[in-house]
Amino acid sequence: MEADISRILIPRETIARRVRELAGEIASTYGDEASGLLLVPILSGSLIFTADLMRELPFVMRIAVLSVSSYRGASTQGGTPNIVQDLKLDIRGRHVLVVDDILDTGNTLRMVMGKLAERGPASLRMCVLLRKKDKAPSDLKADFVGFDIDDVFVVGYGLDYNDQYRNWPEIAVLKPELYQ
Ligand code: XMP
Questions:
Q1: Does 14 sit in the ligand 1 pocket, CB within 6 Å?
Q2: Architecture of the 12-151 domain
Q3: Whether residue 166 has its Cβ less than 6 Å from ligand 1
Q4: What is the pLDDT of residue 74?
């Protein structure tokens, strides 16, 4: 796997430090409402981020996963996002925090936030590990952002290319010849 990596964009210690800080930001934003929080990770990209983030949250909370597919396959271009596995509980009246790996074109989070908003949560916020600062639409505001990055296709720490490299422990850029 290492032979496929061209450069490390964000090393693991930097990710770990920022994830701890994000947990602090989340805890202070929710305050007394934190114990009613429902974390909604979007699978599969946010798997590792969520696992680390939730273990830094110092309050009782629930988690319910949402699986979204954008039929990207072996392409680095996003497709039309679809919910392939919906939440198994009613979010009406709950404080909901959606967690995703990256805010790129914003198509995925726009669709997810729109659908969840219709279900009447008490509050609905969004936390992303990465945001492509020049690409993310200005009308789609993430409440918590780990890192702003340039418009490069990244893998590792849960992010994939063609469903591979999710287990690379850092945020990395692949060698260009690997992209089809
Ligand atoms: P958008 O915001 O474009 O992102 O709807 C949809 C999903 O596409 C994936 N994505 C990426 N995956 N490196 C990846 O490994 C990237 O640079 C990248 N950009 C988008 C990701 O799963 C996101 O949720």
A1: no
A2: 3-Layer(aba) Sandwich (3.40)
A3: no
A4: 64
Helices (H), ranges, the chain: 12-30, 47-54, 107-117
| pTM of the complete model beyond 0.85 | yes
Enumerate residue ranges in the chain where pLDDT < 70.
71-75, 180
SS3 (DSSP) at 99 = strand
* Sole residue written with tokens 């990770």: 41
Model confidence pLDDT, tens digit, residues 81-105: 999 999 999 999 999 999 999 999 9
Domain boundaries, the chain: 12-151
Contacts of 57 (CB under 8 A, 6+ apart): 23, 26, 27, 34, 37
Q: Which residue has the tokens 């271009």?
A: 77
Assess whether the C-beta atom of 164 lies below 6 angstroms from ligand 1.
no
Give the Å distance between the CA of 158 and the centre of ligand 1: 11
Q: What is the reported pLDDT for 35?
A: 83
Q: What residues are labeled active site? A: 104
Residue of 115, 131, 159 to test ligand 1 pocket, by largest number of atoms within 8 Å of CB: 159
